[in-house]
UniProtKB/TrEMBL annotation:
Domain Vanillate O-demethylase oxygenase-like C-terminal catalytic: 94-269
Protein name, as recorded: Phenylpropionate dioxygenase-like ring-hydroxylating dioxygenase large terminal subunit
Origin: domain of life: Bacteria
Entry's transmembrane regions: none
Length: 281
C-alpha cells in the first residue's frame, strides 16, 4: 500500500454526540482537520485548506479519510442488535504508534501482569493453543478458540470465569474483540478499539462497546473500560522500538504472539507502513 493507499483508509476522528456542543478540531496523519455539523445536523469533515473529506457516521463515531476509500467501512452487526448497551468510552491520547496500540489490544499474555486481578492473575498465566488465520474473502485477521481465566471478565461478572475470546482485525488501525457475555450465555460482548493516527508515533484511541448488561450504569461501564486501557497506556508509551517492527527478525515471537505475527504479516501484505519500522536500526 502506497502512502496514498494508507490515506484511503477510513479513520475515526470524533464522537458524533460531542458535535452538538461545538466543532471539533483534531489531526489525522499529520493533517489538521475540523469535524462539525452542517445546517441539517449531518457531520462534516474538512481539512486545513477547506477541502471537504468523505464522512461516515457509524458506531457512535465520525469516520473520514484523507483520500478516496475504495471500500465501505467494515460492518459490526452486533451494533444494531436490539437490547445491547452501546457504550461510547471517549478518547485516550497515547504516545505510541497507532499500530502498536492495535497489537497491544490483540495481546492475551499480558493480562495477568498488566491487568492483575481483573483480566488475569497469577498463577493463571498460560496461553492455551488457539487458531489464527487471515480470512481471504473478508481480508481480515481472526483469532478464534481463545480461552483465558479472568477474575473479572466484565463489569457485570460476579466472579472469576474462563472467558472465551475471538479477535478480529478488519482494518489496519481497528480491532474488535468478541468475548463471553456473563449475563447472557450464548451471546458475545463486543469491545472495539478504533485508533486515529495523529502521527506515526502518536494516536488517539476511541474504545467502543456493544454489551448485554442491564445492571451496570453507563458511567460504571465507561470507567471499567477506561481503567483497563489506562493500565495499557503506560506499557504502550514505553515500548522499544516506538514503531511496530514488521521485519520478523527484529523480535522473537512466542506461541502467545500468533495473532501479532499474523497482524504484522497482513500489514506487510497491504504495504501499510504508517507507524511501522521496516528494518532493524
Amino acid at each position: 500500500m502506497s502512502k496514498m493507499g494508507m490515506l484511503n483508509e477510513w479513520y475515526p476522528v470524533a464522537l458524533f454526540s460531542q458535535l452538538a456542543k461545538a466543532d471539533y478540531a483534531t489531526i489525522l496523519m499529520g493533517e489538521p482537520i475540523t469535524v462539525a455539523l452542517d445546517a441539517n445536523g449531518a457531520a462534516t469533515v474538512t481539512e486545513g485548506k477547506g477541502r471537504a473529506l468523505p464522512v461516515r457516521v457509524r458506531y457512535g463515531h465520525v469516520w473520514t479519510s484523507l483520500g478516496t476509500p475504495a471500500h465501505e467501512l467494515f460492518d459490526i452487526p452486533e451494533g444494531d442488535q436490539p437490547g445491547r448497551r452501546l457504550v461510547e468510552v471517549g478518547v485516550v491520547r497515547v504516545r505510541c504508534s497507532p499500530l502498536r496500540a492495535v497489537e497491544n489490544f490483540l495481546d492475551i499474555a499480558h493480562f495477568p501482569f498488566v491487568h492483575t486481578d481483573i483480566l488475569g492473575s497469577e498463577p493463571h498465566t498460560e496461553v492455551e493453543n488457539y487458531k489464527v488465520e487471515i480470512r481471504e474473502e473478508e481480508d481480515e485477521v481472526w483469532a478464534t478458540q481463545v480461552k483465558f481465566y479472568q477474575p473479572q471478565a466484565a463489569k457485570s461478572a460476579a466472579g472469576g470465569i474462563t472467558t472465551d475470546y475471538m479477535y478480529r482485525v478488519p482494518a489496519p488501525t481497528c480491532s474488535i474483540l468478541y468475548k463471553t457475555c456473563p449475563p447472557r450465555p450464548g451471546e458475545w460482548d463486543v469491545i472495539t478499539l478504533f485508533v486515529q493516527p495523529l502521527a506515526e508515533d502518536l494516536c488517539d484511541v476511541w474504545p467502543w462497546m456493544a454489551l448485554f448488561d442491564d445492571e451496570s450504569s453507563m458511567t460504571d461501564l465507561i470507567h471499567f473500560q477506561q481503567t483497563i486501557f489506562l493500565q495499557d497506556r503506560s506499557i504502550l508509551e514505553n515500548q522499544i522500538p516506538a514503531l511496530l517492527p514488521l521485519d520478523p527478525g527484529m523480535e522473537i515471537p512466542t506461541r502467545a504472539d500468533l495473532t501479532s505475527v499474523a497482524y504484522r504479516r497482513w500489514l506487510k501484505r497491504h504495504k501499510y507502513t504508517y507507524g511501522a519500522q521496516l528494518v532493524a536500526q
